[in-house]
Amino acid sequence: MIGNRATVLIVDDEAMVRDLYRVALEHAGYQVIEAPDGQAGLEVVSTAKPDIVLLDVRMPKMNGIEMLRKLKESDTAHEVPVVMLSNFDEPS
C-alpha cells in the first residue's frame, strides 16, 4: 500500500486493456502499477509488494497460470490476492 491507497498490479500483454483497467482503478482511488507479462509481473511483485494482482490468463513469455503458480510457491508473495482475467474470445 502506498500511503493510504491500495496498490493494484495489472499484468496483461495488451496495453489497451491495461490502460482501461488503470483509468478505472485510478479514478476509484487506487495506486496502479503495470506489467506486460508474467515474467515482468513477478519482478514487480517482488519489488512493489502490491495489495492485489489482476492477472491475464493468456500472455507471452509467461502466462497467467504459470505466474500464479510461482506466486503461490513464493515465501514472500504467496498471500497476495490474485484475480484471474481473460478477454479471450473465440467463436467455438
What global shape is seen? globular
Largest β sheet strand count, sense and barrel closure: 4 strands, parallel
Count of distinct strands: 4
Extract low-pLDDT stretches: none
Count of DSSP H/I helices: 3
Q: How much helix, percentage-wise, in residues?
A: 25-40%
Mean pLDDT score, rounded?
Answer: 90
In whole angstroms, how far apart are the ends? 41 Å
Structural class per helix/strand content?
alpha/beta
Query: What is the strand content?
Result: 15-25%
N-to-C SSE string, H for helix and E for strand = EHEHEHE
Strand order of the largest sheet: 2-1-3-4
Characterization of this structure:
With 92 residues, the protein is an alpha/beta fold. It has 3 helices and 4 strands. The protein has helices at 15-27, 38-48, 64-73; strands at 7-11, 31-35, 52-56, 82-85. The protein has a 4-stranded parallel beta sheet with strand order 2-1-3-4, sandwiched between helices. β3, α3 (64-73) and β4 (82-85) form a beta-alpha-beta unit. The protein starts with 6 loop residues before the first strand and ends in a 7-residue tail after the last strand. The mean pLDDT is 90.
Give a topology summary.
Layout: E1 7-11, H1 15-27, E2 31-35, H2 38-48, E3 52-56, H3 64-73, E4 82-85
Helix pairs in contact: 2-3
Summarize it.
The protein has 92 residues and is an alpha/beta fold. The chain is built from three helices and four strands.
